[in-house]
Design goal:
The protein is of the alpha/beta class and 184 residues long. 40% of the residues lie in helices and 19% in strands. It has a four-stranded parallel sheet with strand order 1-6-5-2. Strands 3-4 form a two-stranded antiparallel ribbon. Strand 5, helix 7 and strand 6 form a beta-alpha-beta unit.
Length: 184
């Protein structure tokens, strides 16, 4: 899809979604193995530190939120909190723990194990309930790095990015821990 039709200008991945990394992401998301959030937070900060050209001009680094009641853990928020803690020099515009810029107060259906058409519908529902907690001036004209754990079809990132653009953001970039190999 051309940049003009999608919400994000680019997506970078720390690694591929396979093997041990896939298993550890599942341990965090579905088993609540919190220790992996600390490691994933370090990986994100390490990527940001080693890619200054991709970070240039970023005004906010925000996680693609999980709903407040998600069990066993709000995995994205845990990763973002760990990244903030790891960023000891405050080189990156991460929100402090408990003060996330993008929040999700209500649960929506999950996209895992769904068809592409269903993933798109679930992604639209997810994006529709998100709320920016900062000043609206904070988002107007901003470049936002939107962080997530896995990039599969790109539907969720697409819908969240379109929502942020509609709110006034100038550019949305994506950063994911892992991307699923493209199967065409």
């Amino acid at each position: 899809m051309p940049v003009a039709q999608r919400g994000f200008s680019r997506v970078d991945a720390v690694a591929m979604y396979s093997g041990a990394l896939r298993d550890k992401i599942h341990k965090l998301k579905y088993d609540g193995a919190y220790g992996w959030a600390m490691i994933f937070g370090r990986l994100l900060v390490g990527w940001m530190d080693s890619h200054p050209e991709q970070m240039r001009g970023v005004d906010h680094v925000v996680g693609n939120p999980t709903h407040r009641g998600r069990q066993p853990i709000q995995h994205i928020e845990a990763i973002m909190d760990a990244a903030y803690t790891e960023d000891v020099t405050r080189a990156f515009p991460l929100s402090p723990p408990g003060a996330h810029r993008l929040v999700k107060e209500t649960e929506t259906p999950r996209s895992a194990n769904r068809s592409l058409e269903d993933k798109r519908a679930v992604a639209a529902a997810h994006a529709a309930v998100l709320r920016w907690t900062g000043d609206t001036g904070d988002i107007t004209g901003a470049t936002i790095l939107l962080v997530d754990d896995v990039f599969t079809s790109g539907s969720q990132l697409q819908h969240v990015a379109l929502r942020l653009r509609a709110a006034g953001a100038a550019d949305i970039r994506g950063l994911v821990l892992a991307r699923v190999p493209w199967s065409g």
